[in-house]
Specification:
The complex is a heterodimer of chains A (271) and B (260). With 271 residues, chain A is an all-alpha fold. Chain A has eleven helices and no strands. Classes of the chains: A mainly alpha (271), B alpha/beta (260).
Chain lengths: 271, 260
């Protein structure tokens, strides 16, 4: 059978997908064991036991200085920043993207401005954000918002603008005004695309969050990674990175689930 | 008196003349088929009547008053594709026209108003044969069912004119014959005035009470874009809303012929 015609079943696909992950883990363990055989005090590739120990300390023992469970405090702080940033980005995308996509005069007015903002690298704006908002939470949230919103707005506005002209004409012949077209034609069809844009923005959002935390913070997943880097504490860095990956996957799965649940019509065409 | 009047209508895109000197009077209750070669401006004419495009010269009046420069609920339309909304169920698609006019701000209906609208929409779905499909989404339906829905959606607004832009062009021959029966029945039951653009000459003659052929009167080989299309044939067929002498419509036609 030709390879383009081979579709693995559910179980086979799971096994095939797990295989590279298992190979990666095994390779790491072999490499770590080899390094420890040569130097039992090696810090670069810690063994799983050492990582578990270091993480248990952070997750289940209160920090003697602050009295907090650092791992959970870091997680809550980072997820909160990410959530607020992406929440603001999503709401502004919905409002601006819908208006921009539906109303040609608004698109003509604000389109170039949006393009100008979108081409500025957000990290270059970070000093400005720190100066304007101080070193607190606002600047970190603002970096996420500034970083992902222009992309999301352009994506959603483009999608709304590309809805078949026939749909708008049809709505007008059914007695709609501009507001009606936006509310009943553009908005519902923008929603699944908005979730998709949000999913694609998750990666950049994490980048901006960790950058902001690395530069100025006192708690957060990114802050911790950059803090313990000074001690070459790979036994903390590696589990933290894995944890960030797990969080990202959970958020992504939730968004997919929500989209299928709420906007089943948009996924039906794929079957 | 003519319901829709086109007076010396020209449509030009820049240098290119698409339609020239179109003057037509369309009487109420007629079923006008428009045929012609590709690029002869059939769809442009339909878009101008619809209000989607503006003529460069000339005037259009509906019931004696000039048409507004935008699409509105007085003219319904069914396109070949994209006529129904993918995010709404069959019932939702049919209700939409009632919701837009009844509540301009929320564009939704609630309570007893909604129940009345649902009743009206269901009656309309029943008459196009979609009574059992009210909760399906368009992607779950065949092309023929989607066009039935598009017709129901347009008719619920009771438009003065129904414009059809190659509505059956993408359908199988068997389905197409069913749709011909359907549109003929609806045309008679609702006393509609229909203008239909089609590629299918047989369809144009079997459905229409009047067949218009658009083509170029003149041709300049050195500047083919300088002359637009006009009406080269305008054939009135001996049919009326009360009697249809077409072979593809059997029972109703015989019944109605008795009253001629």
């Amino acid at each position: 059978m030709r390879w383009v015609n081979r579709t693995p079943g559910r179980g086979a696909a799971f096994l095939l997908g797990a295989l590279p992950l298992a190979v990666l883990a095994l390779t790491y363990i072999i490499a770590a064991a080899a390094r420890h055989a040569a130097n039992p005090a090696d810090k670069i590739l810690p063994l799983p036991g050492a990582m578990a120990e270091a993480m248990a300390l952070l997750a289940f023992q209160a920090d003697p200085l602050s009295g907090e469970y650092l791992f959970w405090a870091d997680t809550i702080a980072s997820v909160w920043r990410l959530g607020v940033g992406l929440g603001i980005a999503t709401i502004s995308t919905l409002l601006v993207g819908l208006v921009l996509g539906s109303l040609p005069p608004v698109r003509a007015t604000l389109g170039p401005l949006l393009t100008a903002i979108a081409v500025v690298p957000p990290i270059a704006l970070l000093p400005i954000l720190f100066i304007v908002f101080g070193l607190g939470e606002t600047a970190k949230v603002a970096l996420i918002v500034v970083g992902v919103t222009p992309f999301m707005i352009r994506d959603v506005a483009g999608h709304v603008g590309a809805l078949p002209r026939e749909q708008v004409i049809k709505a007008l012949t059914l007695g709609a005004n501009s507001w009606g077209v936006m509310l009943r034609v553009a908005l519902p069809q923008a929603m699944p695309r908005l979730i998709q844009a949000l999913r694609l923005s998750l990666g950049p959002a994490w980048v901006f969050l960790i950058s902001a935390e690395a530069i100025a913070a006192d708690v957060g997943l990114g802050y911790r990674i950059f803090l313990v880097r000074r001690y070459l504490a790979m036994d903390v860095i590696l589990p933290y990175v894995a944890w960030i990956a797990v969080l990202a996957v959970i958020i992504d799965f939730t968004l997919v689930f929500l989209s299928r649940r709420l906007f089943g019509w948009a996924h039906a065409a794929a079957h | 008196m003519a319901m829709l009047s086109l007076r010396n209508l020209w449509v030009e895109y820049g240098d290119k003349v698409v339609l020239e000197r179109i003057s037509l009077d369309i009487t109420e209750g007629s079923f006008v088929s428009i045929v012609g070669p590709s690029g002869a401006g059939k769809s442009s004419l339909l878009r101008v009547i619809l209000g989607q495009e503006q003529p460069t010269r000339g005037s259009i009046t509906l019931d004696g008053t000039p048409l507004p420069a935008e699409c509105g609920p007085d003219r319904g339309v069914v396109f070949q594709r994209y006529s129904v909304f993918p995010h709404l169920t069959v019932l939702g698609n049919t209700l939409l026209g009632l919701e837009f006019s009844a509540s301009p701000f929320t564009a939704r209906l609630f309570g007893s108003q909604r129940r009345a609208a649902v009743g009206e929409a269901e009656a309309m779905l029943d008459s196009v044969g979609l009574a059992d499909s009210r909760n399906l989404y368009p992607t779950q339906m065949s092309g023929g069912m989607q066009q039935r829905l598009a017709i129901a959606q347009a008719l619920i607004k009771r438009p003065r004119i129904l414009l059809l832009d190659e509505p059956f062009g993408a359908l199988d021959p068997g389905i197409r014959a069913d749709m011909h029966t359907l549109i003929t029945r609806l045309w008679r039951e609702h006393g509609l005035t229909i203008i239909m653009v089609t590629h299918d000459i047989k369809e144009a003659f079997s459905l229409g009470t009047r067949v218009l052929t658009l083509d170029n009167h003149r041709h300049d080989p050195h500047a083919p874009h300088r002359y637009g299309a006009g009406v080269v044939y305008d054939l009135a067929l001996r049919k009326s809303a009360a009697g249809v002498d077409d072979g593809s419509i059997t029972i109703d036609a015989n019944h109605n012929n008795g009253h001629d």
